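Two proteins, back to back. First:
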Amino acid sequence: MLIWIGALIVGAILGLLQTGWLDDVMNFVATIYVRLFQLLAVPTIVLAVATTLTSLGKGQEAGRIFRHTISYTLLTTIVAAAVGLLLYVVIAPGQLDIKTVETDSPLSTPSTQLSYIDHLLTVIPNNIVKPFLEGNVLSLLLLAAAIGIALARMPETEQKTVVVKFLHGLQDLLFMMIRGLIWTLPVGIVAFAAQLSAQLNAGVIADSLGKYVAVVLGGNLLQFFVVLPLFLLLRGLNPIRTLSKMMPAVLMALFTKSSAATLPVTMETAEQRLGVQSKVARFVLPICTTINMNGCAAFILVTSLFVMQQGGITLAWTTMLSWLLISVVSAIGNAGVPMGCYFLTLSLMSGINAPVAVLGIILPIYTIIDMVETAVNVWSDSCVCAMTDHDLTDRNEG
């Protein structure tokens, strides 16, 4: 992270020099990275969602526990994204005054030119290749979800095993390419930062970026201290007691920035301190670590809207609601690649030709955002686990 911050500073300085040939070089390098991100964007989204939903099919054997887990996961994730959207509309981060980027994304079309039915029809593909060529994110998510659910419901045959292994093999190959790209990313950050600093006014950056941070962190804090406790209260659980018992896991998540690394502590804490049944904790928490990404959903939505706004994309209500859906599905299918939600958001923005260079100015503060996001994710996992255990206990006693 220190290397990336250093690259950001170097790039900003180079941009301030206002040297013609140097600006041309930085623009050339930035264009290369944008094209590479666009290359990986579509397979990243499709494979992440498809493989996640495919693997979740195995959980159907657990019946009631699985259904409760999925229901609470969807509810909390949708609410997290909705809170982020509401704050974005209320706080309204401003423009950074960069050159807008042309985009042919179907989702960028102003709602005044499309009825709601026409807008919906742009999502339904009539050609399996067309969404990939156009980078229509909603259509791609629809296809990926259909493939994942269909594979999950297929009987366990040799043919299914071959297809699933093929998808996971492609994903492993993609991850290797992504790691290689991220390893060289400091070079791209220098170029992106140089582009931005050559165009931006420092005062505008501080105001707009400050509001963006307020939306992201404010949404996460509301989810942590208000929304999730309300979910617990509605299920007859004491949120203060639940949080105090799960605090070791939440604190570890805050400092490790990894739900997966925190999982053993989360499971142990849920069983030994919170008193959750072992069969529930050991089933629910691994699933939640994979799909229950409240903080990630809010980050994807808010950051995507912020970046699209800088690219001149009209943020009509149809667009914002479409991206709420995209953020929820993307968060559920978020794969365990380096930088998680950040790279997934970057891929989504690359897919619609939004100005991904804007994401460079978020990097210096992303560590703090990532810490808070991970703490929210683990706290949400804990709440889902506690509510599922409470529901099953009530039913058994009844």
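And the second protein:
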Amino acid sequence: MNFLAHIYLSGDNDLIKIGNFMADSIRGHSYDVYPEEIQKGILLHRSIDSFTDMHPIYRQSKHRLHEKYGHYSGVIMDIFYDHFLAKNWSTYSNEKLEDFAENFYHLLKDNYEILTEKVKSMIPYMFARNWLVSYASIEGLQMIMFHMDHRTLNRVDMHESIVELLENYIEFENEFTLFFEELHQHCADKLKELNG
């Protein structure tokens, strides 16, 4: 799962959203310096990643990309799944995607001092290109993939994966729909446990 899904699956708690969003830039137990709700977001993020990586439906999706993109097939698949979430947003939320994104960008600005340096360096691009909304279109996905290629020093041409997406679009979308229902329940259970 990429940024949009992680934020969405955090529920309504703003600090859990922030912790979930920036968790990739926090290693090991270094999260324990953060406020308790941020810590919950980080732990939720790690639970989402573990659940996703081990799930047979996600692995089936990722397998289509593995031969060409190797290690990066997971990165690409996470972005594809965010695309299907954004594209079908009204199925999952009563709030417009544009409003959801704008509210989250404001949340990051209002809590800027909590963010890691890695996240601080990334968010100007995120805001300028409106990544969370961009996931919904193929053109937006291509832009995000080109940015990912730049960040990974063009080790693989991730932007070319749009070809595989379009060739297998119905299969990918059906797999996402089935998987996301299970992930949504997993996150609801995990949040109950964290808030216990």
